[in-house]
Q: What sequence folds into this?
């Protein structure tokens, strides 16, 4: 737990995880990045638009036997909609992403691209393009490209592993499988990241401290 | 058990009951013969003791 | 490690004003909704971006719906709000309606109806697995193909949706069913989706959203829904088990009460053409209050002749008479096909309901020759009388009566299934049965 002063507005900025270098100042939306002992102002994140997501910063739960806390969020948009990616901090200090779109949830964790041999992913990592329907196998699972789009970072809050400036654009490709597993590939010109995971039901995560929404009763699975 | 199942069970018991009754009485609608008028020509059958 | 102070509850709706007509409208799934149709002017609005854009401007009032948008109902223990409405059809014909239901903690569901019933649908996150020819498997359950190569087009849109719905947009469809459930596929170049729908009980839906219960299927009326379970299927196995139990019970009873005992025999001769012979055998006593009596006759050596036998079982005390008739006959000869024989030298007669008592059996026998080569001499006839009889005819009659309701149910079930599968692209159940299911 580290409390510092926002380099832009001076308000208290609390970092809970040593592994996550960025926190969006709750008051002025500046991306505050820790580099060693230094604090850097990395530009503003946009204010989040209103939504009725049941998740909020402070929500906690369990996934695959590990407890997690939601400590950050990035909201991405594309021509036909937008979605949230919530940052999950696990008990062992590692992190993952809780993706939320169309009322469906998925949990993914980054997979280092260096070790990945799949032709399709290597091609994407080196800047190549693929088409919807193309597939590749990784660890015995066949991933089929289901949608390819350009996504823009709309807004961000909380702690993040990277800075999320407003207007940041990436290529985003989602893969589906017959087992409920998912893969997500993101590239912004220089950097490429691969995330692997699966669809989850919100109840499966045994969530606590979900966001309260007026007029809607808390679900039974959120004790 | 469904209502239909229950009613059918009663129907089966009914059939079995009637069958049982017929068996006890040695009855069958397909039997060849039954009660008839006394034989033409009369006559008494069986030992007669004077 | 929770965050500290619990923030204030978020509002459930976001108010906005329609850029086309200026009316105040409420956005119920803010953050998810991409398309919103203004309920006042029917203009199609783009809510993907913070600035609400107009996709299609109209100026007519929205249609009245069976479930007004904004209505909430409880299904499967969860509250749902109807936020979107679509009317779709197969190229303009066979229209149906779809309501998009929303709950921020549970996501989206669909309510689909075409007047015959309500189906509650959930979008799947896993594609179905292959399950044999014309079949798919989801969650271990098999689904059979029902509709193939369908095309669904959007005819009318109202409310909120999480994708860009356009009037006239088309998708390819396919449907698979199992009793009570329908697995539906929809796709075009950009997207492919699978939805699993559960047929709701009429009462459940009426209680949840106040709609009328759909009419029960009647033969001759509109066909049942593709995934409507046969109202007779459930009872079929119960009836089958009961019928089997009943038949076994009847069989056992036949054996228990059947059989004959205390068989007594006597013999005499009769000459064909030689006039009537009368013999009396007694006493024969029957001790059960009531019993059947089996009388057997055997005329050995009978050839091309017959013997008429009149039986009279007379109670010694009351002289009540039980009469029966039997015939022993035997004919043989040669013709173009070779040698032939007909008739039986033995005859079995069963008397029913003979009360206890001492009886005499009076047999009046007369023989006649038939054609040539008949026995000219005396024919020995052996008569046996026994207490009790096995009436397999009773058993068969009882089994038939037992099965009548089961057969009626089976017939009705077949009629339902034929009507249900008549719409299918796979052909009707009857046609498939006739064909012998060659793809199996």
A:
């Amino acid at each position: 737990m580290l409390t510092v002063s926002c380099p832009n507005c001076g308000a208290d900025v609390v970092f809970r995880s040593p592994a996550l270098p960025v926190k969006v100042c709750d008051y002025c939306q500046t991306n505050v990045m820790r580099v060693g002992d230094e604090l850097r102002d990395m530009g503003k994140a946009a204010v989040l638009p209103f939504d009725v997501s049941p998740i909020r910063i402070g929500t906690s739960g369990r996934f695959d036997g590990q407890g997690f806390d939601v400590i950050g969020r990035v909201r991405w948009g594309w021509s036909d909609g937008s979605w949230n990616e919530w940052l999950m901090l696990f008990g062992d200090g590692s992190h993952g992403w809780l993706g939320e779109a169309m009322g469906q949830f998925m949990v993914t964790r980054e997979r280092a691209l260096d070790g990945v041999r799949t032709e399709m992913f290597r091609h994407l990592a080196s800047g190549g393009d693929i088409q919807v329907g193309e597939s590749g196998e990784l660890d015995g699972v066949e991933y089929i490209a289901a949608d390819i789009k350009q996504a823009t970072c709309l807004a961000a809050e909380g702690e993040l592993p990277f800075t999320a400036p407003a207007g940041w654009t990436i290529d985003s490709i989602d893969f589906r499988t017959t087992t409920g597993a998912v893969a997500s590939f993101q590239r912004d010109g220089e950097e490429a990241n691969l995330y692997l995971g699966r669809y989850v039901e919100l109840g499966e995560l045994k969530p606590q401290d979900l966001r309260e929404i007026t007029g809607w009763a808390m679900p039974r699975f959120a004790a | 058990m469904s209502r239909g199942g229950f009613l059918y069970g009663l129907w089966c018991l009914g059939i079995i009951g009637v069958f049982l009754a017929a068996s006890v009485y040695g009855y069958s609608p397909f039997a060849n013969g039954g009660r008839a008028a006394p034989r033409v020509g009369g006559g008494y059958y069986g030992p007669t003791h004077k | 490690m929770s965050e500290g102070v619990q923030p204030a509850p978020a509002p459930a709706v976001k108010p906005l004003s329609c850029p086309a007509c200026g009316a105040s409208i409420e956005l119920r799934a803010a953050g998810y909704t991409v398309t919103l149709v203004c309920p006042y002017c029917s203009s199609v609005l783009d809510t993907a971006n913070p600035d609400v854009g107009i996709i299609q401007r109209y100026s007519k009032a929205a249609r009245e719906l069976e479930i007004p948008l904004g209505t909430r109902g409880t299904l499967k223990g969860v509250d749902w709000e109807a936020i979107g409405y679509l009317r779709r059809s197969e190229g303009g014909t066979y229209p149906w309606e779809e309501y998009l239901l929303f709950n921020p903690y549970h996501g989206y569901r669909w309510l689909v109806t075409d007047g015959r019933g309500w189906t509650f649908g959930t979008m799947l996150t896993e594609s179905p697995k292959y399950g044999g020819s014309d079949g798919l498997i989801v969650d271990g359950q098999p689904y059979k193909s029902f509709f193939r190569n369908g095309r669904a087009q959007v005819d009318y849109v109202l409310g909120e949706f999480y994708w860009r719905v356009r009037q006239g947009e088309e998708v390819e469809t396919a449907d698979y069913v199992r009793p009570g459930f329908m697995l539906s596929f929809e796709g075009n170049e950009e997207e492919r989706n699978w939805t699993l729908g559960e047929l709701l009980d009429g009462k459940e839906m009426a209680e949840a959203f106040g709609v009328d219960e759909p009419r029960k299927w009647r033969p001759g009326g509109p066909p049942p829904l593709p995934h409507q379970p046969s109202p007779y299927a459930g009872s079929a196995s119960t009836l089958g088990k009961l019928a089997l139990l009943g038949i076994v019970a009847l069989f056992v009873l036949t054996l228990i009460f059947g059989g004959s005992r205390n068989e007594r025999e006597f013999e005499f001769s009769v000459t064909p053409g030689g006039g009537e012979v009368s013999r009396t055998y007694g006493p024969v006593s029957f001790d059960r209050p009531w019993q059947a009596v089996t009388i057997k006759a055997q005329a050995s050596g009978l050839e091309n002749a017959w013997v008429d036998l009149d039986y009279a079982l007379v109670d010694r005390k009351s002289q009540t008479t039980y009469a029966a008739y039997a015939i022993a006959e035997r004919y043989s000869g040669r013709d173009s096909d070779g040698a032939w024989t007909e008739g039986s030298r033995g005859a079995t007669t069963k008397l029913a309901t003979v009360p206890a008592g001492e009886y005499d059996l009076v047999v009046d026998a007369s023989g006649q020759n038939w054609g040539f080569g008949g026995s000219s001499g005396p024919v020995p006839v052996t008569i046996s009388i026994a207490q009790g009889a096995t009436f397999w005819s009773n058993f068969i009659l009882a089994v038939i009566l037992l099965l009548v309701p089961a057969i009626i149910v089976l017939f009705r079930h077949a009629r339902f299934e034929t009507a249900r599968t008549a719409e299918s692209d796979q052909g009707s159940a009857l046609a498939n049965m006739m064909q012998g299911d060659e793809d199996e």
